[in-house]
Amino acid sequence: MFFFSSDVLQNTFQTVSTIQLIILHRRLFGASAAVVRALGRRRERRRERRRERRGERRDNDNSTLLERVRALATRVASAYAVDPERISLAGQSAGGVGAWRFALEYPEFLSAVVPVCGALPGDSAKAAQRLKDLSIWVFHAADDSAMPVELGDGAVAAMNRAGRREPARYTRYRRAPPPPDPQYNDMVGHASYDLAFRDASLYAW
Known about the structure:
Layout: E1 2-4, E2 18-23, E3 34-39, H1 41-54, H2 62-79, E4 88-92, H3 94-105, E5 112-116, H4 124-130, E6 135-141, H5 149-160, E7 169-173, H6 192-196, H7 200-204
Parallel strand pairs: 1-4, 4-5, 5-6, 6-7
Antiparallel strand pairs: 2-3
């Protein structure tokens, strides 16, 4: 499983400052896990300064950024002998939006996608058709004040209208805590990821 956190990929996909990749080899889960964190902030700042000196605009093309993420995930998976049929993606908040976007761009690259308190971008009916062969598990909280739960409700409903081989799974918490960072304490119910990523059944799935 690799993971987009909320500060990794913004909704607009205009920046990729940090990519966290967590590769879990399921046959060894509980005994070992390869955890790789690729920190790109310094490199990205250097690139930005070079662009500014040349008078260039920042590359905001979504597909280019998604391709960079896919290439990095491929390299890490290869380095750690990960089964290519068992690569899944999880994302929280804006990273949940990123998880949907990546899955829509590269559905054949993944075995599953787990968007947590994120919004499905674009036309939901078209997205559902594109993702109908991909395993999906959505998490959201009913009291989420940052990403309304209707976003999760609508995404799951759209997925399950598409004639999927298996229904999209949905965990809809009644309540979730705010994010642990004090500056986000006003985001009541938004940290459903704090519950989802502690759920052992997610990794068994």
